Amino acid sequence: MSVSSIKLSVACLLLLGVALIFVSEGAEAGTWEQMDDMPSDLDMERGVFAYDSVNDVGILVQYYHEDDGVWVYDYNDDDWTDKGSGPSDLNTEDGDVCFDSESGVLVVAESGNTGRAHYYTYDYSNNDWSDGESRPS
Question: Region 99-108: what's the mean pLDDT?
Fold first, then answer.
């Protein structure tokens, strides 16, 4: 298992832990609520995940060699939704992701190892991808 896979796994576990706290809505400390399992065809390895604070969802972009799918976790409904494919050439391995709450978009930056130093934005509300220009070098 690569270092980035371990980091992603830890980040996802932390994020789901935070989700459990929010879902419990003030439950006593030390109380946990079991959430539904993620879909069996969702592969988190080498993907990127970020919290969309505008829509209160978590967005996972799968690694393009695996499936290049986009999955959204709704914290209020405890439900995963398959939003279809992301850009076919988006390499999330060792890439970074963040949510820009001012613009309301997810920003996915490829690893510098791709030689492209490319980024994309994803608008969850419209299920729309935009190909960003290359990052400054």
Answer: 91
Per-residue pLDDT at 88: 76
- How far apart CA 104 and CA 67 sit, in angstroms, is 25
Query: What number of residues does the chain have?
Result: 137
Question: Do 72 and 58 form a contact (C-beta atoms < 8 A)?
Answer: yes
Provide the β-strand partners of residue 9.
Answer: none
Q: 105 - beta bridge partners? A: 100
Per DSSP, helices labelled H in 25-68 are none
d(CA 45, CA 42): 9
Q: How far apart are CA 27 and CA 94, in angstroms?
A: 37
Distance in Å from the first CA to the final CA of the chain: 30
pTM of this structure: 0.67
Contacts of 103 (CB under 8 A, 6+ apart): 121
Give every CB contact of residue 47 below 8 A, 6+ residues apart in sequence: 8, 60, 61, 62, 63, 66, 92
CB atoms within 10 A of CB 27: 12
Amino acid at 16: L
Tell me which residue of 81, 7, 83 sits closest to 39, measured CA to CA. Answer: 81
